[in-house]
Amino acid sequence: MSEDNVYTLLITKGNDPDDQYGFYKERIDSQNDFSYIEYNTQDDELTDDLFGEIDVIVMLFGLYHNNQEMFDDLFKKSKEFDVPILLVRFFGMEYVLKELEVKSDAVVGWNPHCIVDAIETLVKGKDWVKPCDVADDS
């Protein structure tokens, strides 16, 4: 679990023609009061030890269609290691696949405050209460 409010995140990164990962990083890094350690699915070896350290798996829905096997593997690891999943919708869209939504612990859009609030809520073990309306996720 996190120490001193520094969260350990595993973020999906892979075949990403729309640069959803880069846009996510800009958004989350704009939050001065939020500290995190990042691992990602492209640059880090995803060992069982690593999953034991992760607070939240952040899945960027915009990467799903080009990286389905990775998403399936992460859902399995999430269950195995009891790590919550935050699904971030494709930028500018409200839709996510229902099958992914039901497997995720929370779903948010691109509002950086909503992303941070969701991560903090998931780590603190509270039930997810949707803090941000879809209309506010711009």
Could you walk me through the main structural features you see in this protein, from its secondary elements to its overall organization?
It is a single chain. The chain is an alpha/beta fold and 138 residues long. The protein has five helices and five strands, in the order βαβαβαβαβα. Strands 2-1-3-4-5 form a five-stranded parallel beta sheet, with helices on both faces. Strand 1, helix 1 and strand 2 form a beta-alpha-beta unit. The C terminus is likely disordered.
Main traits of this protein?
5 strands, globular, alpha/beta, 138 residues, 5 helices, five-stranded parallel beta sheet, disordered C terminus
Give a brief rundown of this model:
With 138 residues, the protein is an alpha/beta fold. The protein has helices spanning 20-29, 48-53, 68-81, 98-103, 112-123, and strands at residues 6-11, 35-40, 56-60, 85-88, 106-108. A five-stranded parallel sheet has the order 2-1-3-4-5, with helices on both faces.
